[in-house]
Amino acid sequence: MGSKFMRGTFILTLGTYISKFLGLIYIIPFFALVGDNGNALYNYGYVPYTIFISIATAGIPLAVSKFISKYNALEEYGVGRKLFKSGLVVMLLTGLASFIILYLLAPTFADIIIADKDQIIKSDDVVSVIRAVSFALIIVPFMSLIRGFFQGHQSMGPSAVSQVVEQIVRVAFLLIGALVVLKVFHGSVVTAVQVATFAAFVGAIGSLIVLLWYWYKRKPYLDELLRKDKGTIQISLKEIYKEIFISAIPFVVVGIANSLFQLVDQLIHNQAMANIGLAKIADASLAALNVNSHKIVIIPVSLATAFSVSLVPSITDAFVNHREKQLKSQMNQTFQVLLFLTLPASIGISILAEPFYTFFYKPDPFGTKILMIYAPVAILFALFSVTAAILQGLNQQKFTVFSLLLGLLFKLILNTPMIERFQTFGAIYATVIGYSVTIIINLIVIKYFANYKYRLVFRRGILIIIFNVIMGISVFLFYKLITLFIAPETKSMSLLIILVCTIIGAVIYFYLSFKSRLLYFLFPEQMQSLKKKLSS
């Protein structure tokens, strides 16, 4: 059973990483096709869609997966099937309702985003793009629930395969569609972006077809389980949904935290830039931050949080069973691993901002500067994800919602004055303050409810920072040396610089961590396993 679970988790994780990779790499050819303003327009449609899709699904697929798993363990297969059937109806209705609301609200969003007539992108363009992407809301919640159903049966293959297929179909339709519109029909960038955002709907169709195929193949087995149903538990759907919604709300809020901060920028940035007479560059400036730089910055965040959050189930177990020593040990490891992985990645991206921005997009001094300043914010994104996950493990999710809303309030209040004072960089500073407020509250709540002291994390954190300073100075000096001979003016040269500097930085960081035995403290099992392999 354990190996089946591990295999399923591995398959699902692999599927997630493949789809994330595709979701990142497509931006290179897409940016080459539509440019700065096309990219900005694409984001104007996608941020509201991301928030609406989270609200439409409301964490129900994940919760349904847990309920089905729970009742299957009790051999009450009928309860799971009953919940699945009603869930499909609920998801179809919430999806349709979300689609209609977003479709109708598109002009309102557009009027707020396009704050000045001097902006390059016009209100009608934003309306058409938001409406194009809104169609995906009809299918995605419905499709997500089928994934949840399979996961509830410990079957991760359908979810993983459908995820990858969805991303392949979406990216292929997005790139081919934009290419055909621009190069074959010589259409406008606005039409190309409409097609690109509509790709979310096409990708969801592809995923749904895969899931229906799996359903057809596995229905005899699922029906066989149903015939083994004990039928001893009678539970009303009303009771189940009440529990689902109560447990799902914190998940939804945490899941859309990043999108909410981006939405604040989307609704405020352009007006604040217009206030200081910079409406003409507002769209491209916001795209450099919220689309281009954010795509790069989020890479180390997803890797670090995936590793750290994987430790959270054991935190929950230790807390519930009052194993205080184990709880503190797990939390120490979680925070240290997070800092160990996120700090060097964000510092590296900041130092190599120019080749990174050139490789993914084009040579751009403004975009480079944005990425340089924005990259260290990755540490805050990762810290928020992990502190929120720990609060979930301590059953204190309500504080996560409170701290996030307070952080968002700070962001809302500070965004306009900061942007008016520092232009687009002000939006970064407001995000830093907003996330810092949220994280500080989370850390205080963790300290109180887990009776946790940060002394060890603080001491090791200083050591990790010293190693990062040594690594950062070394990479910076080597980068300056290499750019005397190779300039990051093309994608190939930029990639070469990134690879060489990353290898040098990684070797220095690994050597320092190994010699100080920091690696043994942070990754005891992995280091023991490596030692055995090397000695055998």
UniProtKB/TrEMBL annotation:
It comes from the Bacteria. The chain crosses the membrane at residues 12-34, 46-68, 88-106, 126-150, 171-189, 195-216, 244-264, 296-316, 337-359, 371-391, 398-414, 426-450, 462-487, 493-512. It is found in: Cell membrane. Keywords: Cell cycle, Cell division, Cell membrane, Membrane, Transmembrane, Transmembrane helix. InterPro entries: PG_synth_SpoVB, Poly_Biosynth_Transport, Polysacc_synth. It holds the Pfam family Polysacc_synt. It is a multi-pass membrane protein. One of its GO terms (biological process) is cell division. GO terms for cellular component: plasma membrane. This is Putative cell division protein YtgP.
